[in-house]
């Protein structure tokens, strides 16, 4: 089952992101967790490895605090070096602020992740998020280990990293 974490302090934007994601066949709101600050994001990433993290680049450390243009990029660096945070398989940065986009883009490029400009008056960002999701989902099928409910029906000669032949008991 796919798991998605969305970190955004703007409730309208968060609702639009969830709406876009739930248009994907097989994705429902049950697959999506959300939080409005970096403290909440850390709590989530300590407990679970997400397939996808959609991160607002200008998000406060704590709810009610001032949001900083560098917060998303700094948090991404923290994720990549932390031993306690479970690094998501794929990250999409999403921001309405050009300054935040320019500051974070090199950090995202280091990990081959994507930053997308959000514009409330446009739907261009939606197709870009969906495109990134589809590309990321294809990579997940190769990299992600089977869930704990899965069993292998592959032949002994199959490669250890192969997902071919795994069947999930839960459907």
State the main characteristics.
single chain, 171 residues, alpha/beta, two-stranded antiparallel sheet, 5 helices, 7 strands, 17% strand, globular, disordered C terminus
Itemize the secondary structure elements and their pairings.
Elements: E1 4-7, H1 11-21, E2 32-35, H2 38-47, E3 52-56, H3 71-81, E4 90-95, H4 98-110, E5 114-117, H5 124-143, E6 150-152, E7 166-168
Parallel strand pairs: 1-2, 1-3, 3-4, 4-5
Antiparallel strand pairs: 6-7
Helix pairs in contact: 3-4
Can you give a write-up of this model?
This protein is α/β, with parallel strands linked by helices. 38% of the residues lie in helices and 17% in strands. The chain is built from five helices and seven strands, in the order βαβαβαβαβαββ. The chain has helices at 11-21, 38-47, 71-81, 98-110, 124-143; strands at residues 4-7, 32-35, 52-56, 90-95, 114-117, 150-152, 166-168. A five-stranded parallel sheet has the order 2-1-3-4-5, with helices on both faces. A two-stranded antiparallel ribbon has the order 6-7. Helix 3 runs parallel beside helix 4.
